[in-house]
Amino acid sequence: MSTKLGYQPDGYQRRAVRGRLTIERRLRLDRAQWERHRTVQVEVEGLAPCLPLMGLGSG
Q1: Global confidence as pTM
Q2: What is the count of structural domains for the chain?
C-alpha cells in the first residue's frame, strides 16, 4: 500500500525493543512523489513560529 502512495524503500534499522531485536523497514516520501500522489489541497498554517525549532528561519 505504501508504494502506491509514492513511498520508496530507505533501508533497515535494527533496534532493541524490550530487550528483543527488531528490524524496521524504513520508507521515504520526498516532496515530488508526495505532490504526484496527493489527492487533496494542503495548506499549512502556524508554521512560522516552529521553524527555529527545526533549525530553519530566525528566532
Answers
A1: 0.55
A2: 1
